[in-house]
């Protein structure tokens, strides 16, 4: 009797499944019929909307600038779809400004035919032009986004030197005066002398031992002329040529009478066309009606065909799947492709970031922007938003989600979730790390005269090494270790971020062949030459970070003399010549008897080992970590326990995974 009852119950479920499918199929059929019968009305509504968009994106004027069009758009008067996100202009009192990589630039000239801009960084331009006499707040080089801009041949690099020692009298001879100019600015009520020098002549002025400098592009003509250096070089700004904004598509659109706009949801140029008078006439209505009828008929036939196909297989399906699962295939598929992490919808993230406000932007890279946001549940998050869709970027997106979903460590950024693959935009949601990056504290907008104390730098080195050792023990190579990917929380504890380039190694492999990727100044030269990626590639990049910590110099800086542009090359030469102290951060304690000095020397020696050209000569990350712990004077490191879920749902401790791979890493 019990068996008979269970069979009847199964049959009942089978009937419910079929009834649900039948009801769903009928509803779907009528939905499509209604949609296509209303097609003419929808089309007329589309033309109305298209008219409004076309009108909104008409060319605009600002002061002496006239007929400005795509890729530019006026932040004050136009909707964002009128231009590319990177080309937003702010018109104030007839003056145009735009932001490039967090730096504000005055627009001095726009030539849309040749796609050339003449621009000048606002803080420097205002000072030179006499509007403001204060020195710049931050000694940061002029920086442009090379994904969208390139310098033209009409530029030359100049260096503004600050906080310098005295200039020898011999430099004021007539033969030298064409190579530099002297001006001044105000800093906290004190007049500071500024030397403006051609970058090609920079080494001639090293005798002054200037503490700060700013690299500024300017005109190619001589520093010295009748109007003075300030006017001839800096006040006239520099030229950049823009590209990569769908130029061919836009030209074709304009050729056919349209106006260009930008569809952010698809990261693509769109052509806005005005509905010509009388276009929506009786012929169009008749054509739309016929098309609607044909499409509705096809939908009905397709629905009947699909229903019959499913009905034939429904008996078998009802015994394999429960009704609750079979009626939700999309949820199952999307979860498997997003590795079981929480899904977010675009609309929620749009609101959380205040509609991706520029004020909430935390940073950008080669393929994405990162925005600060606050979710409805109160969590503060960082939202990574891809610039545009491509197969390679989708692979990076999935790769980053997969890696972050499988790792948990106190010094790795925590993944909250992502949008699904069918979302209008691909976005990853992380925990928000409030204190910027190590780069910011050493070289960027958080770098001050009171730089990070040595004990904090030492802890940053240890925690970063601990995170990398954990990744290597989990068969993961980060592949883009650099100071800007080492985030710091309010207490300056490390959170390693950005896993878009990371690779998961097969368990039995210690090296893979792959196209070299990374960042200039950090990229392992052996990997770059052989295309053979190993765990030791991360060791090399980490060695560069160690040099940054003890020198406060950028890993790659074209303002330095040619042989010193790449930091690790300069450091290795200094180390071999026993002159490394020449480039050490002067704020550190170099008293030979101090514990701090001993620790600095220990870190320098470890960096030297990490930066060996041959990967076989470098230590493993486990060895690096142990060395740093010993230098720090701690017998053993006790990181917080960390756990992650395997695909089968079992919870396992992963914090001490390094012990199981010591032999593997040692052989790399």
UniProtKB/TrEMBL annotation:
Keywords from the UniProt entry: ATP-binding, Glycoprotein, Kinase, Membrane, Nucleotide-binding, Signal, Transferase, Transmembrane, Transmembrane helix
Transmembrane spans: 22-43, 286-307
Polar residues compositional bias, start-end: 655-668
Ligase as UniProt keyword: no
Every Protein kinase domain range: 356-631
Binding-site positions, ATP: 384
SUPFAM superfamilies assigned to the protein according to its UniProt record, in alphabetical order: Protein kinase-like (PK-like)
Top-level lineage group: Eukaryota
Pfam families reported for this sequence: GUB_WAK_bind (PF13947), Pkinase (PF00069), WAK_assoc (PF14380)
Membrane topology recorded in Swiss-Prot or TrEMBL: Single-pass membrane protein
Subcellular location(s) of the protein: Membrane
Leader peptide range in chain numbering: none
Region (Disordered): 640-668
Record keyword Transferase present: yes
GO CC aspect terms: membrane
Enzyme Commission number: 2.7.11.1
Protein name, entry field: non-specific serine/threonine protein kinase
Organism classification: Eukaryota, Viridiplantae, Streptophyta, Embryophyta, Tracheophyta
